[in-house]
Amino acid sequence: QKEVEQDPGPLSVPEGAIVSLNCTYSNSAFQYFMWYRQYSRKGPELLMYTYSSGNKEDGRFTAQVDKSSKYISLFIRDSQPSDSATYLCAMSVDYKLSFGAGTTVTVRA
Amino acid sequence: DVKVTQSSRYLVKRTGEKVFLECVQDMDHENMFWYRQDPGLGLRLIYFSYDVKMKEKGDIPEGYSVSREKKERFSLILESASTSQTSMYLCASRLGSNQPQHFGDGTRLSIL
After folding, report:
1. What's the confidence (pLDDT) of residue B31?
2. Is the pLDDT of residue A102 over 80?
């Protein structure tokens, strides 16, 4: 069993829709939780970083962490074609970063 | 904004060559990392460095070495390149413990 499981996708949504991305994990030692966005032929770009259970908002993005259920989510409101990318969840303990496999999202204009 | 710069976006080398991949960060970060990213396998950690001249093996160090002589620069070395090392290589850095990693744009390396 992988340490981090991410909903595989791909997802295709119309412009303006809410995008919901999910990951589960098995290692209860994970302390920090991140979401990265990766455009084609580019490196991952940090979107959200949090260490506590609950919600964190940044503009159209909301990260949700539920440590008791070992579950994290990313919501994108009012999605735009520019949000079309692969989204990676990641979680860490000390130096080690464990990634989900990524979900590819396409927002149709 | 954090800037992690990888010296080459695309590189083509031959089997058996010694290959150097360079990474520079401009934010005085303590820790630096090298990953490779392959379809179906995701990102895997090759080596990391928590300080100048210090290095630790990651999950897949075989066939690679690293060098960190200055704080801002972290080099990945393929001692004798093989076709199995064809991949996207990503460098990352972070300020220190409990901080997120920031990535460069990657080097797409092809070994022929």
Report:
1. 94
2. yes
